[in-house]
Amino acid sequence: MASLTGYAIVSMILFSLGTIGVVSRRNIFVIYMSIELMLNGINLFLVTFARYHFNMDGQILSIMVIAIAAAEAAIFLSVIILLFRTKKSLDTDIFTDLKEEVE
Asked: What whole-number distance in Å separates Cα of residue 14 and Cα of residue 79?
């Protein structure tokens, strides 16, 4: 059985990789996948500490996060499809229609 420290380190690595992906990438789909990686890191952390303290609260919260992420995935992927249909690209620099023009 792996230790608490091992699981905590893996969850921190997952969260860090997701953060790096969100900050460094320009493709909307890759950014979305990085956000999901961050959520998985948080879920692993919650489940690890819930198991360590013999408490079900972390596992219940983790299941709620997974359910919300599933609903968010459907909405986000439909938005990605609509953005791709209008602009023919998923590069974040193209989506500046809502920016206020500075004169």
From this structure: 25
pLDDT band at 101 (very low <50, low <70, confident <90, very high): low
- Cα–Cα dist 57/63, whole Å: 10
**pLDDT tops 60 at residue 1:** no
Residue 76's contacts (CB-CB under 8 Å, 6 or more residues apart) are: 32
- The contacts of residue 59 (CB under 8 Å, 6+ apart) are 46, 47, 50, 51
Decide: helix, strand or coil at residue 27. strand
What CATH class has 4-87? mainly alpha
Predicted local distance difference test score (pLDDT) of residue 100: 64
Closest by Cα among 38, 28, 36, 22 to 71: 36
